[in-house]
Queue: 2 jobs
Job 1
Amino acid sequence: MTSFDPASPGQDVGRAARVRAMLLVAAMAVAVGASLMIEDRYENYLARLTLINIIVVYALNILIGYAGQAFVAGAAIFAVGAYGSAIGVMHFGVPFAIAWPLGALLAGIVGIVSALPALRLAGSYLAMVSIAFNVVAEQVLILGGDITGGPVGLPAVPPVAFGAFTLGDSGTLALIAACAVLTIYCTASLRDSQWGRAAIALRESELAAKSLGIDTVWLKMAIFFVTSLMMGLAGGLYAHSTNYISPDIGGILASFVLVLMLVLGGIGTLWGPLLGACVLTILPQLLSSFQKYHLLVLGIVLLIAVTQMPKGLAQPQDLLNRRRRRSNAGPAGGTQSASAVPDLLVLARPAADAGLTLSARNIGKRFGGVVALSHAAVDVRPGMIRGMIGPNGSGKSTLVNVLTGFYSPDEGTVTLGGRDIHRLSTSAIAQKGIVRTFQTPRLFSDLTVAENLSAGQFHHRPGNLLSALLGTPGNTGVNRQAAAESLALACALGLGGLLDQRAGDLSQGNQRQLEIARALAAHPAILILDEPAAGLSHEESMNLCTLLENLRAQGLGILLIEHHMDVVMRVCDRITVLNRGSVLAEGTPQEIRANAAVQEAYLGKPAGAPATAAAGEA
Amino acid sequence: MELLSVAVTGLAVGSVYALIALAINVVFAARRIVNFAQGDLVMFAGLLSISLITAWHWPYFLGLIGAAVAIAVLAVLIERIAIRPLPREESSISWILSIVAVAVIASNAGQLIFGAETRPFPPLFENPHVEIGGIRLDPSQLTAIGATAAFLLLFHLALNRTLHGKALKAAARDPDMAMMLGIRVSRYIAIAFALAGVMATLASFLIGPLTFINANFGFSLGIKGFAAAALGGLGTLPGAVIGGLLLGLAETFSSTYLSSDLKDIITLSILYGILVFRPTGLVGETNIVKV
């Protein structure tokens, strides 16, 4: 990303992809070679178990660590893959080479279905629903009669075989090792792709992700499907390499152990899952004399891991990575100035979408008995800055939430370019071109500035999920384009020297600028800024004014909610004043300045003497 | 008449679920976490009171009170050790893992302390059946229904009519604001956990005669409690009651008329179905987005 060279991107991309492919092949060769050297049967068994756990924990890492989905039922999904493949071979006579992927596909579908109730809500619900789902799944396996073998399970699952050729212990181990290497590679590749950044955006702030046009429901479904597929593949490998499966492998306890591997190793890190899976697969085997206290100890370890070392064992590794990334920040560092205005041309939305007018009429919104808005109206035309002011509690933020689909209005209509949008979801509205910022910035704190800006481009530059997983040249190309636009945006907002900073570490002023830049990354036709100047220095405020004027010159429509009257009066073409949920006044800055009703709302009733045009300084 | 006695059984079981759901809701309101280790608290409370009453020969109700105090202290300790060190963000998944850890530790510690065997609760009534209007009913079931109803009423009054109750509500609604008003939020979180401990003891006393208690039943009870709370709507008092009763009825009817093997699958599928269409539960608030 840092060695961006616009002159020869194609050549560069090709070379990077070749290097990566060679590394992958080399790692696979080493893994396969090493597994063929293990002769001891028990060691072979232990290695298979460890590698299978590695695959599952990496998949969970994408789901829980990157995407932030608190899905606990990993073992149940794993079991679906295991049983699916085993039943396919044993009851239906399907060859392994077909039953294995089919079982994984089934796991993928079950993964999506199990997550359905939680697609609209996050956090606690998903965790609990997934636990309930796991209980049900285990029961189904136990009650499955002849098909699942009941409580006993399925003994004598046929070994891994392709056609007439049956892989022995060593061959099976080699296959599993290759799959594990591929899984780690895919995770690394995904992490540095638009899909990976969108997944982390989902974790960091689902609201902000939606406001940037990321269709979070689809994104979640895609992530659930892919990770469940991976777990299902691991399950199939387990069934046919261990030759025996029972409902225990899909039990809630097994799920907890998988999550513990992830947490202990380091959730959301690249190498943590490897560490966690190895330690927690091998150690209990070596300490099998402590069987009685096994779970008690696991519980205590999990408790300590969660409360005392939230980053897991891999934390030092992670710190190292970050330092390395910073030290070779390269050309992005410091050399760019805030005057790179020509780059703003990048921001222009494709002509077909530009030039849309946002218009809200007769909006009413109540919360219980409280009337937040009644007959509120506002319109924003392209190439215009509309100011919206009003005392605290006058309904400004509620109106913004209605315009952007966070609330649905009780009355009235919102149209964009003449089309009704008030029934659309937040992400659909953002895709149509209305993008907002928040009163308190909602950045993707754990991503860098550059990654925040790339995540902002996700809805119009997603790339392809499969190529993101495989790290194809196409994916690298998308990354380059996204990085180029991020660089231009960062420079335009004066963040050019901060590209590799973690967004959460930025100053207040820089956070606001980054949020505006990220909104622009989503290619808005209408930009809604909720108090962008709050907490900015005077100089920063004046830079903001210049930026807004530049954006207006490019045909962007801007709705500016702001308390700083110097900013409002300088840049706005027209101003809407809200008071108690309805429009108190509307007009040019001069008209608003002279309006007696506005002065009264802001300063109270003038005591005898007629008020002068002081309202502007309120 | 069989229908009626099945319904009473369902309501009795449902009352206990409602009690567990209420405890989950109280903790959820105070700290925005789902304490599904609540079932393990019930298990501990049950086994402890059985030991106090039968092995230590404490008087029946003294044994219950002793257990209630001990479990309340245990719940506060859990909050101190497993919950307080965690960040207060709702989206964070660390609390789930932390509570999973507590649940795993609790059920295994329970097994080490009390043994794995199933134990009956000492019966409160000599006579296993009473006849009311020609219908034979189990007095333990009637006790479960009556005691739960009385407790819910008491809880409702305490929450809305006393200063501490109002402070608890304030701390739940807006912890930052409550803190600025001088309410010690962390103390009320601890109080919520202590309350959960007391409710766990009451629940164990009521469910004990209806079923058996062993160290492993805490987990599934916790899941049922969560299912009841989520069914009604997390964090609400009427939600806990509606969800608990509904779950108890569904479970009893399906195990009577279909198969007792299927009851968990059926009840949890109902939960799933309702959460797909109404994610915030039957009586939960619908508008939950905070921008």
Job 2
Amino acid sequence: MLRNAGFTNMSSMAGGMKAWKGFVSSGPPEAGMAYFPSAARPEELIALAWSLEEGSRRFYGAVTGSIQDQDAMAFFQGLAGAEAGHEATLLTLYQEVTGDRLVAKIPDKLFPGIVPGEVMEGGMRVEQALEWITGKGISDILDLSMSLESYSYDLYLKMERTLTDGNARRVFLVLAGEEAKHLESMAALIEKRQSPDMP
Amino acid sequence: MSPEAVKELMKQKKPDEYNLIDVRQPGEYERGHIPGAKLIPITELASRLGEIDPAKPTILY
């Protein structure tokens, strides 16, 4: 069927989803997309994404202050740092999209009706996430983090595919790329923590 | 294509350079899918081919 329709480069993944050992996201196809209105301008989408990154940065920063395990503390400090890096990437993208290279931060007027950083990637309110992790172990916090980051990666890819404005699509392509690198780093750090050599 | 090869392709190419299509049912997709995969159930594939760019490598699962 696909060959008759002109598809010459196609493959089916052996074993299907059951055989997949990488990142997994859940939820229906439209999950999270309402957060980014399709009619929004690219700079507005950047501001919304920045707000989510700030939420994640606040979450990881708060987690750092709530755990005793030194290695885990360093790990979450690294995650908070990575989110700050994403914010810097978004500011650079904002400067490119608007042509204003001198702007030092995303203008407050682009956050109408929302408190920047109140909601983190994955759509969870930061306060709700911090409440959830109270009394939980490091593994649970890591599972939550991976789940929310995978959701975010999935959302950015869906947005890139759905939008028609070239600049808006570029925003989400860049964000998806950053999230992919972030997820790889998280997976590597989690694997290191699970290593039998880890003290 | 092995899952490892799919992972490698996703690493080597930007998301807009390939099609990743989940041909399962909506409930299965909701329970867990590869991030970025577009859901087109197998029963709808023939009528929705216009949503996929034939010029790009296409992976189905």
